[in-house]
Write a structure and sequence with these properties.
The chain has 13 helices and 14 strands. It has about 375 residues and is of the alpha+beta class. It folds into two domains: about 230 residues, no CATH class; about 130 residues.
């Protein structure tokens, strides 16, 4: 049965979009290359959404027999923690999607963890960046949210990739326009049995109509048993508070980061109408919220893994930061903090900066100053419209 979704436009017109198959597999692969966020990182890890760095399409994986390049993976991504993510794409009309694709991806993964040197992955990433006219190191620094002169952090990131590979800590993703029931069961079984490797399926259904194309991601494989086995369901929702947040932060961060985070919380309590505590399964967070004229304005999210997530993606939905110019001015103010270097393409995204950056010199005061300006702009806009 052909599915439909409905959109209501600003002028209250109802627009009908009909589920439409992809013309070919290459189109689906190209969409993933162009829009990695289709891999639905927030569904894979809701408490710390995965972000994706594309290494390359059509990546050759060596094996023992050929020492060569007879196996080609559709896409290789890395996430922000350096976890290699192997993606294989099939259309539901391809009969290989039932079982053959499973053996194919497992074969790739088994050879990758044994025969794939991280130096080759890094070289491939650099080569692909050069083909796109991009500076590989600058792109990676932007992805990680680190200072342009912090070469040590870049090297540590690639060391993380190497460590994850050697430990078998990888992610395998099956992507299709429709994941058949047989494949869902296999994915769920594998994900329950494999640790530290992760196996998920992502269904990307396409709906088309009225000059609009909508793609709806849906994830499979993350059963409760798999979460329990991998230790990702150890903390129930609605339990994070100040005490549990800082206990978790102290396990992964030094005293300076903990103290800086406490300053951010105290500053937030004074300048927001409430502080919302997160409901993540594995990581805590808090978000200062200013409620004015019936609208909630979220400042940023502070995470218990030592990062501050900036909400440019959400700023653009509310005045006055729906203006590109206003969001860009906030970006410039934050870039005045040594160690922060946000490129212009973050204006519609949610970039993160390491809390550790804010402990040095006057960095924390500059961070506060940027958001005090942010608050003043919101207040002015709220009472002058």
């Amino acid at each position: 049965m052909v599915g439909k979704i409905f959109l209501i436009s600003d002028d209250e017109d109802l627009e009908e979009l009909t589920e439409t198959p992809y013309v070919n597999e290459d189109l689906l692969q190209t969409l993933l290359e162009r829009y990695p966020d289709l891999l639905a990182g927030e569904l894979i890890n809701e408490s710390s959404p995965r972000r994706w760095l594309l290494v390359s399409r059509e990546v050759a994986i060596p094996d023992a027999e050929s020492d060569g390049r007879n196996m080609y993976l559709d896409h290789l991504f890395l996430d922000q923690d350096g976890v290699p993510t192997l993606v294989e794409v099939k259309r539901s009309s391809d009969t290989r999607i039932r079982r053959e694709v499973v053996g194919q991806l497992l074969d790739y993964a088994a050879n990758a963890v044994v025969y794939w040197p991280v130096e080759e992955i890094r070289a491939r990433y650099v080569s692909e960046c050069e083909l796109q006219g991009m500076d590989a190191e600058a792109s990676l620094q932007d992805f990680l949210g680190i200072a342009t002169d912090d070469e040590g952090q870049v090297d540590r990131y690639w060391q993380n990739v190497k460590t994850n590979l050697k430990a078998g800590k990888i992610r395998m993703i099956f992507v299709a326009d429709e994941i058949p029931v047989q494949l869902r069961r296999i994915i769920e079984f594998l994900n329950e049995q494999m640790d530290p490797a992760e196996v998920v399926g992502i269904e990307l259904r396409q709906y088309v109509g009225q000059g609009i194309k909508t793609i709806v991601p849906r994830i499979f494989g993350q059963t409760e048993e798999a979460s329990q086995r991998k230790g990702t369901a150890t903390r129930p929702k609605n339990k994070w508070d100040e005490q549990s947040f800082f206990a978790d932060l102290a396990e992964s961060s030094g005293e300076e980061v903990v103290n800086a985070t406490r300053h951010i919380l105290e500053w937030s309590k004074l300048r927001s109408t409430r502080v919302w505590w997160g409901e993540g399964k594995t990581r805590g967070s808090f978000v200062p919220v200013l409620h004015l004229q019936g609208i909630d304005h979220q400042f940023f999210a502070v995470w218990s893994n030592g990062y501050v997530e900036l909400y440019f993606q959400w700023y653009q939905g509310k005045q006055p930061f729906s203006s590109d110019k206003k969001r860009d001015e906030l970006r410039h103010r934050l870039n005045e903090i040594p160690g922060v270097d946000l490129s212009k393409d973050v204006l519609g995204r949610r970039p993160s900066i390491r809390t550790e950056v804010l402990v040095h010199g006057q960095n924390l005061e500059k961070f506060f100053s940027a958001f005090e300006w942010f608050i003043e702009e919101i207040i002015t806009a709220s009472f002058t419209e």
